[in-house]
TrEMBL record:
This is YciI family protein. It comes from the Bacteria. Gene3D superfamilies: Dimeric alpha+beta barrel. It comes from Neorhizobium turbinariae. SUPFAM superfamilies: Dimeric alpha+beta barrel. Residues 21-92 form the YCII-related domain. Pfam families: YCII (PF03795). Belongs to the YciI family. InterPro entries: Dimeric_a/b-barrel, YCII. Transmembrane segments: none annotated.
Amino acid sequence: MAYFHLKLIAPRPSFPHDASPEEKTAMQAHFGYWQGLALQGVAIAVGPVFAEGGAFGLALVEVSDEAAARDLADGDPIVTAGLGFKFDISPMPSIILRTSAGGAAAAA
């Protein structure tokens, strides 16, 4: 298995503060999609990042290879909705995981 960082890039820097009703609906489906992947153990962490230059989405995933990471990105409802969202995908050659609150970290 391999780890990847997926960065969801919105169609404009002002998103989500000016999201249209169509974008809000697609974001609800996006949330459900990633929540399901987290429950399956594929997504390690997922969430919005409010950075100085504009918000973006972040997902850390564990999959077999980069093609599988691309499949996750391409299958995201926010991408399939055709609203201008896209993912940048970067491999992570190693990762340190928290085993539990108060527990020791594990390297993978």
